[in-house]
Amino acid sequence: MIVQGTFTFAGPRATVWELLQNPDVLVKALPGAKRLVRAGEDRYEGLMKVGVGPVTAADFALTVSLRDKVPPERYTMEVDSKGTLGFTRGGARVELEALADRVTLMRYTAELQVGGKIASVGQRLLDQVAKLMTRQALEALNQELRARLAERGSP
Amino acid sequence: MKPAPFEYHRPGTLDEALVLMAARAGEARPLAGGQSLIPAMNFRLARPAALVDLNRVAELAYVRPADGGLRIGAMARQRAVERSPVVQRVTPLLAEAMPFIAHLQIRNRGTVGGSLAHADPAAELPAVMLALDARLEARSSSGARTIAATAFFTGLFGTALAPDELLVEIALPPLPPASGTAFVEVARRHGDYALAGAAVVVTLDGRGRCRDARMALLSVGAGPVLATEAMKVCVGESPSDEMLRAAGETAATRDVDPPSDIHASAAYRRRLVAVLTRRALARAVERATQVS
Questions:
Q1: Residue A154 pLDDT class (50, 70, 90 cuts)
Q2: Which residues contact B86 (CB under 8 A, 6 or more apart)?
Q3: B 209-228 near A (Cβ less than 8 A)
Q4: What is the pTM of this model?
């Protein structure tokens, strides 16, 4: 499954980059994330509780590693998750472009493999779920970005 | 396959059911026809702590004409609605859509309210309710409220219902005079989840122009989609091949962002939206012309 899209952040590129590398911020933005801690250089481990519609939320163990980092322009994020309902494996290429002083465009392309029960039963819904979770995460990040900028007292 | 353990409650009246839903808000799930919830529980995808079985709540199973329109109890079986002469006369769109829902055996058990509260993006009934501008009545132990279909569906399996609320009734307004309706869908096999579908209501004015047009699409978004841009293309226009085509293209390009899955790509679904919208609209216009 390929998930790709763009998202416009209301802040400068350097700040967006900072947020994207900060596990304390990501844990708040990722839908259902309960914990995300540094487990090494550019490597994070955590726990997500995910459920959609009729599916009762279930735990997924999560590892995230970042590579090919070119701050503050682009990086590749590899994500593995595993739980009783199934697993996901894959990576996302993320690019940030400064469109204006406080406007940053993100382009992302993720290639995900999904397996286990969620894939066999929920195949027709995976695309929608991935889109929904991506959108929720990016909107939460943008929210956090706005809050931080406001705190710094910038206009 | 067996479900995870759960508590089972079988109230005999709506009031009892509402008390149970309030006592276990967020943990109890109402059981209607069970055609989606039970398989999900057997796969252990759904693990509700408690079920409130509504099948003995007889007061919720009815279909009756009211104020020129129709009132349907949430526990009315889909098959009962399909075979109801009143439904065929008052809301032919609903009657036309019913046979597309899964298979006959499933419609024998499946309920109208269950399908709406489940809000599967590929389901027929949510789109039909959007097209008909239905009003959905929700009840909880603390009161009742009416929710417009446009506000009821909130995204992927999402509804405006609170955890302790039950959908109890669907009110369908009468069709205005000189109206026609049509339902079309494409599935790989009959009874499969639709790849795309369209429910359309058209009302003509005295000079044969579209006074109003409502189109709802299914299986091409996170929930049912009201094709508001395509609707604007039609209003005030005399139905012509150009108008039908323009409405279809507008729906496909401006109203939907369809998903890709192993059954159909997003691009293919977009083409289906263009074609099905045009076909349903043409059929609805033809029917409106016959009654005006």
A1: low
A2: B63, B64, B65, B70
A3: 222
A4: 0.93
